[in-house]
Amino acid sequence: MSIQHSELILNPDGSIYHLNLRPEHIATDIIFVGDQYRVDKVTKHFDTIEFSTQKREFKTTTGTYKGKRISVISTGIGPDNIDIVLNELDALVNINLSTRKAKEKHTQLNITRIGTSGSLHADIPVDSFLLSSHGLDLNGMLQSYQVDEISHPDIEEAFIKHTNWSAKKSYPLIVSNGKTLEDKLVSNKVYKGITATAGGFYGPQGRVLRLPLQDPDLNKKIDSFNYNNNRITNLEMETSAIYGLAKLLGHNAASMNAIIANRANGTFSEDPYKVVNDLIVYTLEKLVE
Fold this sequence. Notes:
Elements: E1 29-33, H1 38-43, E2 48-55, E3 58-65, E4 68-74, H2 79-94, E5 95-96, E6 101-102, E7 110-119, E8 129-137, H3 153-163, E9 173-176, H4 179-185, E10 190-197, H5 218-224, E11 226-227, E12 230-236, H6 239-249, E13 252-262, E14 267-268, H7 272-288
Helix pairs in contact: 2-6
């Protein structure tokens, strides 16, 4: 059955609606960054550049690094943008845009996020690297899909009990990373832990300006959660959405975090740009090994 024009929206040149990309523009190995200006910070290390475009906050550059074809895409901030980016990337490789029908042969993408984050524990210092073993979805975007097959009910139920999670909030969902990418990226230089993904920067992450919080103690509860030595190590706004949609669509995903703040001891990196660049170089080298 063909997918309706209202569901799969294409531009007049045949490119996918938001990303402004056609299938030939992207590699199967993809790096996500949040900031559009960080795309160039990754691709400055490339040997060649073959294509670049931008529409809104979504900037894409495809080229090669040590002979490996890689696309770098800026997603902007938040799980709603990840919903756009991952669904449209999957459409580029797994839907025939001319016939609007799903392809019989599935193409798997390898997606690595390079982002910044704040540590929740004193023993994970600023300027370190952290690989997200799981994403903890606190924002509810994934609940629009059928997620039972990718969830971890035992951890989720333990988290709900530990935090006295409000029934008015979206059900928290735990999603694991893509193991093949984890095996590529992990080393003794990298911490691992559960990354909580909030739907906003202020209240959803426990920040208070003028508005009181529904649960002012939630961050302390998140910090102290531990289930079979799985603890929540950091908080940001994209990882669980990437992990969840990648799992549902049959892709591999891993999230690499440059720790630029430590909320446990109130410290911030003296040179956050250096730790991000160091993580970029580390990740690129691991992807081509």
